[in-house]
Write a structure and sequence with these properties.
Largest sheet: 5 strands, mixed
Radius of gyration: 21 Å
CATH class of the largest domain: Alpha Beta
Helix content: 40-55%
Number of strands: 5
CATH topology of the largest domain: Trna Endonuclease, Chain: A, domain 1
Strand content: 5-15%
Structural class: alpha/beta
CATH architecture of the largest domain: 3-Layer(aba) Sandwich
Length: about 280
């Protein structure tokens, strides 16, 4: 389950969500837009970026990282990317802040001592979803974030509660967006179930079949990436991080082409040539 993609979908629907997690959000939080940015030389892709409105002069840029698995160099990467992007765009922003979202403290990087200055400052905010409180007492959009972390046996009941609450509290079309996100989260969390089984569990009809198809397509894509990497590793040994990244970025049709083409590869050079050609 790629939970970070769920969060980025949430941020796209409701950019102000990030600032509901902060003690001191900016006064113009409603005007921020969610985006992704790239830094060249070296190449960085930063998926979660909240950009201040351009018509209000220089503002504060917020970098967001959703981390659902342990990464012992997470802070090294986040602070390097954030600092470099801020350096390259210094004229556009007067300050930067970073928000790191964990399901719980147990997944935080172990050695944080080298980053104590940042982590103990007002510039970096660490959010632990399991410490935000009772899902039924939280603001609705924040509750959606917590729904990604509740135990599987509790998730259906909490999802049904949030669906009911959405219908009572939110007018269309905003309610449709929230219902779609709840459905998306549950299809991700119970990806082994069929559409009808998910419908039965939630007590709704999945009219938004596009959502279901997209999620299933993403699942197929991830499975194909894993299969191709296993095949290549078995033939040529451990692959570099760069090759891993290149393969992970391929679309499903191209991945399927690669799964056939690799049978004719005699070395990693053949793989690299094939990737460059595409």
């Amino acid at each position: 389950m790629r939970r970070d993609s769920i969060f980025y979908k949430l941020f796209q629907q409701y950019p102000n969500l990030l600032f509901e997690l902060l003690t001191n959000p900016p006064k113009n939080a409603n005007a921020y837009r969610f985006d992704s940015v790239a830094v060249k030389e070296p190449k960085f892709e930063i998926d979660g970026v909240f950009l201040p409105p351009e018509n209000e002069g220089v503002g504060v840029i917020y970098f967001c990282e959703v981390q659902f698995q342990r990464d012992e160099q997470l802070y090294e990467r986040v602070f390097a990317e954030s600092s470099l992007y801020f350096y390259r765009n210094r004229a556009r922003f007067r300050d930067w802040q970073a928000v790191i979202i964990y399901p719980s403290r147990s997944l935080e990087q172990t050695d944080i001592y080298p980053h104590r200055a940042f982590l103990n400052s007002e510039q970096v905010h660490r959010v632990y979803l399991d410490e935000l409180g009772d899902i039924r007492q939280l603001p609705l959009w924040v509750a959606l974030m917590v729904l990604t972390t509740v135990k599987l046996e509790q998730a259906p009941e909490e999802a049904r509660y949030l669906l009911s609450r959405t219908r009572e509290e939110v007018a269309s079309p905003s309610s449709n967006a929230i219902i779609e996100m709840i459905t998306t989260i549950m299809v991700y969390r119970f990806e082994q179930l069929s559409r009808r089984e998910v419908e039965s569990m939630l007590g709704i009809t999945l009219k938004e079949t596009r959502v279901y198809r997209e999620i299933k397509e993403e699942g197929r894509e991830e499975a194909t990436v894993n299969l191709v990497i296993r095949q290549l590793t078995k033939r040529f040994g451990e692959l570099s991080e760069e090759i891993h990244s290149s393969i992970s970025g391929l679309s499903l049709p191209v991945l399927e082409d690669l799964s056939e083409a690799l049978l004719d590869f005699t070395s990693l050079a053949d793989l690299q040539s094939w990737l460059v050609a595409r």
